[in-house]
Amino acid sequence: MIRQGFSLVALAAGLMTAPVAWAEDKTHSMDDPNIAVSYAEDGRYYTADDVPTFNIAEDGSVDWLTFSGFRRYHSECHVCHGPDGEGSTYAPALKKSALTMDYYDFVDTATNGRQKVGASENSVMPAFGTNLNVMCYLDDIYVYLKARGMDAIPRGRPAKKEAKSDAIRDAENACMGL
């Protein structure tokens, strides 16, 4: 599979990890194949199923996508879903959704939105498929929320990050039309 810096799913929608100490989610661990880094390519990390995931070095440095995801989440998503993926009275905690929702469902929901209306709930997630500030960074947001859901990174801006690779920079520029 050839990558241009963004997963093929994200593009079609429109557009080995070092152990660290943290409180593990009761249903997920870093050994979980849905989370564990299987391979890296051009500054991006993937599970064995080719799903983007986060990588945190022993010194606490986060991969570029996790850092970028923090920035993008807080520019577009936190207004409804609360800071750091913690949720709000208006919308659910996305840090938990990133652990329980399939990656492709996450992409679909962000791209096309979702509406649940019934006797017990009334919620609307708007479609962001035409918003380049979301679509060009959807994998970034996903891996950031996955890291937050695992409590692999604390709340707030990550203190240290890997450098942005040329491949990631080129893919961002291409997606944004630069």
UniProtKB/TrEMBL annotation:
Specify the signal sequence span: 1-23
- The answer to whether UniProt assigns keyword Metal-binding to this entry is yes
The record's annotation in SUPFAM superfamilies points to: Cytochrome c
Supply the Pfam families for this chain: Cytochrome_CBB3
Identify the keywords attached in UniProt to this record, alphabetized: Heme, Iron, Metal-binding, Signal
Q: Which residues cross the membrane?
A: none
- The protein's organism comes out as Donghicola mangrovi
Q: Which Gene3D superfamilies match?
A: Cytochrome c-like domain
| One example GO MF annotation | metal ion binding
Q: What is this protein called?
A: C-type cytochrome, methanol metabolism-related
